[in-house]
């Protein structure tokens, strides 16, 4: 009788649609019936301003699990640039509509005070994965990512968590954290979703002017061209190929482009150095910082 009641409760919650929850206590309470009934729980951590890329993660979780929790929280501890935090887009009402259409069970939208009732002094360090590329240029960024993702993992206790491959280095850092903390959560990375012109979908794309968006199309265009170029050229030649084309592109400023081993994230000198080669790039279109990547070998 108890099992039947719990099962009925889970079905009842799904029937009434997605529920928005704002506190960890309420989230845990809402998930307890599902857990007792042996249901699988998926988590999609986001910072809101959702787009088709996020939707693909949610749909994958809905497909894989009985329950899908999506977090919508702009995490202040991962921003080393205060202006970037202030300007980050917010659109909770639109996010809710998108998530309902994707079949999410719960939207967890906490306040900063809920997630950080006191300063988080924990320090996460996973060199060399978190000390190169984004880690070298955004001090404290990955520590902040690990702080909030670990908090979400503790609140939700998911079986699986879903992340987009656009944030390639972030996924590697989170995998390292899960292993370090022995969490037993499966990290599922999902392919980059792109606009028709090739631009990798990002919440920051909303901040681009029409001209900046047009200019930004040269990022993915260059990466796609470099994949063909790399088939008959060296790593060094491919590096130069990408850098030169971004430098010549109107309105773009290259921060870095590195060809790395997809597991260690360390630079490679020869294609023979690894069976998994990835080109990671960060470019400014106007004042908007955009990241992307391309797989040369996998």
Number of strands: 9
Percent strand equals 15-25%
Number of helices: 11
Q: How many structural domains does the protein architecture include? A: 2
Annotated CATH homologous superfamily of the largest domain: HUPs
Based on helices, strands and strand pairing, what is the structural class?
Answer: alpha/beta
**Strand order in the largest sheet:** 1-4-3-2-5-6
Highest CATH level, the class of the largest domain: Alpha Beta
Structure summarized in a few sentences:
The chain is α/β, with parallel strands linked by helices and 298 residues long. It is built from eleven helices and nine strands. 44% of the residues lie in helices and 19% in strands.
